[in-house]
Design goal:
By secondary structure, the protein is an alpha/beta fold. It has helices at about 30-45, 60-75, 100-105, 110-115, 130-145, 155-160, 170-180; strands at about 1-10, 55, 80, 150-155, 190-195, 200-205. The chain has one domain (about 1-205): 3-Layer(aba) Sandwich (Rossmann fold). Helix 1 packs across helix 2.
Length: about 210
């Protein structure tokens, strides 16, 4: 059984600070609470016997730091592979803007459609079909390497919401009936490959 564990990076805004829509062009480090989330991810991996033999992260500080902290905590000796595919999406004119500013430009319905169905709001620079195909190719490469039991990847919410499309259509339909696409900061999504197809084990799990 091959396991793919995907984490969303930890917090990048301190308490009292107004969150902004941070995308591919905004490279923020983790806050103290975000660093603790990275440690908690590693602790979960260690306690559940999910020590990665390989790890992937985007080039952004927030994902790289989360990955490094998690691997240190679970004492993994895996290589870290930088992947441009895992970089957050580009929010176009809404990059680094507050949610209030974003809603003023595109409206609440556009945000709801993105959160519920991954329908891209006008002006955002993202190709859903490309991301879906990218996840399928990424997952296929993990499943094909039988020398590694566990792979770990850290990405951002805009990218992670397309991850469930590695499931077969019927399984994906069941997923959408039970779960929301949004992944919380510091949360885990776990998939297992049984030799035939990917199956969901956990989604948006807080370690």
């Amino acid at each position: 059984m091959i396991t793919l564990v995907v984490a969303r990076h930890g917090n990048t805004f301190n308490p009292g600070e107004t969150p902004r829509r941070v995308g591919a062009r905004t490279d923020l480090p983790l806050t103290a609470s975000g660093q603790e989330q990275g440690v908690k991810v590693g602790r979960y991996l260690r306690r559940n016997g999910l020590i990665p033999q390989i790890a992937f992260t985007s080039p952004l500080k927030r994902t790289r730091e989360t990955c490094e902290l998690a691997l240190l905590e679970c004492k993994a000796k895996s290589d870290i592979v930088a992947s441009e595919f895992l970089r957050e999406i580009d929010y176009g004119p809404d990059e680094n803007k507050t949610e209030e500013e974003v809603i003023a430009r595109i409206g609440r319905k556009a945000i709801d459609d993105w959160n519920e169905s991954a329908i891209v709001p006008p002006g955002w620079r993202v190709d859903p079909d490309e991301l879906i195909e990218g996840w399928k190719e990424f997952a296929a490469s993990i499943a094909a390497d039988i020398t590694r039991e566990t792979a770990f990847a850290v990405t951002s919410n805009g990218i992670a919401r397309f991850l469930p499309r590695i499931l077969e259509k019927e399984d994906f339909d069941n997923f959408t009936a039970c779960y929301k696409l949004k992944v919380s900061t510091g949360a885990l999504c776990i998939f297992c490959h049984d030799g035939l197809k990917w199956r969901l084990r956990d989604w948006n799990l807080m370690p």
